[in-house]
Amino acid sequence: MTNKIKTLKTREYEFCGPIGAERHIWQPSLSSMRSIVGALLLLFVIPGTVFYLLLTCNSEDASVLSVPGPLPPLETLWDSTAVTIVLVWISLQAVLYVLPLGTVVEGIPLKDNTRLKYKINAFHAMVVSFLLAGLALVLGMPLSYAYDHFLQLAAGAGFLALALSIFLYVKALTAPESALAPGGNSGNPIYDFFMGHELNPRIGSFDLKYFCELRPGLIGWCLINLCFLVKEMELRGSASLSMILVCVFQAIYVISALRNEEEILTTMDIVHDGFGFMLAFGGLCWAPFTYSLQAYFLVSHPQELGTLAAVGILLLNTVGYIIFRGSNSQKNAFRRNPSDPRVAGFETIPTATGKRLLVSGWWGMVRHPNYLGDLIMALAWCLPCGLHSYSPILLCYLFYGPSDTPRGKR
């Protein structure tokens, strides 16, 4: 019965969905989206952007308006130890994922009205991961290795993301048509490889896309921040207020995402987007190695932050978090059950796909309150880096700015 349900061919091309939970990074116009050349270019541009930003943040002036130099030789980017560390990290998260911890919930109905089961234990995985990191500190293991070999670790993560993407595409070629993703079923191998050909690729009950959505990247992001904080303490004897604020703000963000892990099941990543290079690279490389750039920047560019400025930044982050968490909670409740008492009286409007959108509560104030909250928090993360450097402020826009996109209009 399931195999008889077909996934329609992709008619509108788009680049690209969130590189992480609900992120919008590159979003060209519809005309350029129809060009397969665009997908091919992004296969090189996205990894290139990661390394450009890493090199820029570690340069003397840390400005994206100047070319960082000298560029490291390509052969120095490959480090077997770094690749092994990334592989061990991903494997650890996979083991923690399959352990009998947490609860099991059902996702929203698929086209055939079946529901996939998902294990909710990402927060448990983070707790165990940081207990192990604490043990490593006690045993004297050099956590500052992450700072000293940041480029090599990023290269290793990018390589593993590419290998996973190839596996996913080959696997999708044998998947039934009903299992293909609406947005990655164009028939063009380059485009489908990039967007993701299969919607919910699984090995047994192990959901590959769901696993990569939060665990290796977001937990890894916090662990990398911890390593940078340790490095700063090694260099200067104590952690700066700027570093503490960045690490605490971002840890709160990640903990919130993991504590509300079930909400990811109603996002476009899970519901619509296939699992291909875009999300694989985003989860394994983009998220941990670019979201941690503020802490990376502060190690080599220490910033003095006054008490008044710190309080202002704290209030800004709090406002952003309240908007972000409140709007996402309303959206998730409505998508799961429109009759939920929390949203039952809210106004809605129909869409071209037959679904309905909230236009009251947080969603009646601005078009995308969740993106607004993201943007405000991102600004709060960047301000401890100071205003004299272009890079951290640019990252704020790069991560969260372009939300009025074809994807948002759906």
UniProtKB/TrEMBL annotation:
<keyword id="KW-0756">Sterol biosynthesis</keyword>
<keyword id="KW-0752">Steroid biosynthesis</keyword>
<keyword id="KW-0812">Transmembrane</keyword>
<feature type="transmembrane region" description="Helical">
    <location>
        <begin position="76"/>
        <end position="99"/>
    </location>
</feature>
<keyword id="KW-0153">Cholesterol metabolism</keyword>
<comment type="function">
    <text>Catalyzes the reduction of the C14-unsaturated bond of lanosterol, as part of the metabolic pathway leading to cholesterol biosynthesis.</text>
</comment>
<keyword id="KW-0560">Oxidoreductase</keyword>
<feature type="transmembrane region" description="Helical">
    <location>
        <begin position="275"/>
        <end position="293"/>
    </location>
</feature>
<dbReference type="Pfam" id="PF01222">
    <property type="entry name" value="ERG4_ERG24"/>
</dbReference>
<keyword id="KW-0753">Steroid metabolism</keyword>
<dbReference type="InterPro" id="IPR018083">
    <property type="entry name" value="Sterol_reductase_CS"/>
</dbReference>
<feature type="transmembrane region" description="Helical">
    <location>
        <begin position="36"/>
        <end position="56"/>
    </location>
</feature>
<dbReference type="GO" id="GO:0006695">
    <property type="term" value="P:cholesterol biosynthetic process"/>
</dbReference>
<dbReference type="InterPro" id="IPR001171">
    <property type="entry name" value="ERG24_DHCR-like"/>
</dbReference>
<keyword id="KW-0444">Lipid biosynthesis</keyword>
<comment type="similarity">
    <text>Belongs to the ERG4/ERG24 family.</text>
</comment>
<keyword id="KW-0256">Endoplasmic reticulum</keyword>
<keyword id="KW-0152">Cholesterol biosynthesis</keyword>
<dbReference type="GO" id="GO:0005637">
    <property type="term" value="C:nuclear inner membrane"/>
</dbReference>
<comment type="pathway">
    <text>Steroid biosynthesis; cholesterol biosynthesis.</text>
</comment>
<feature type="transmembrane region" description="Helical">
    <location>
        <begin position="375"/>
        <end position="400"/>
    </location>
</feature>
<dbReference type="GO" id="GO:0005789">
    <property type="term" value="C:endoplasmic reticulum membrane"/>
</dbReference>
<keyword id="KW-1207">Sterol metabolism</keyword>
<keyword id="KW-1133">Transmembrane helix</keyword>
<feature type="transmembrane region" description="Helical">
    <location>
        <begin position="120"/>
        <end position="143"/>
    </location>
</feature>
<keyword id="KW-0443">Lipid metabolism</keyword>
<protein>
    <recommendedName>
        <fullName>Delta(14)-sterol reductase TM7SF2</fullName>
        <ecNumber>1.3.1.70</ecNumber>
    </recommendedName>
</protein>
<feature type="transmembrane region" description="Helical">
    <location>
        <begin position="149"/>
        <end position="170"/>
    </location>
</feature>
<feature type="transmembrane region" description="Helical">
    <location>
        <begin position="238"/>
        <end position="255"/>
    </location>
</feature>
<feature type="transmembrane region" description="Helical">
    <location>
        <begin position="305"/>
        <end position="324"/>
    </location>
</feature>
<dbReference type="GO" id="GO:0050613">
    <property type="term" value="F:Delta14-sterol reductase activity"/>
</dbReference>
<keyword id="KW-0472">Membrane</keyword>
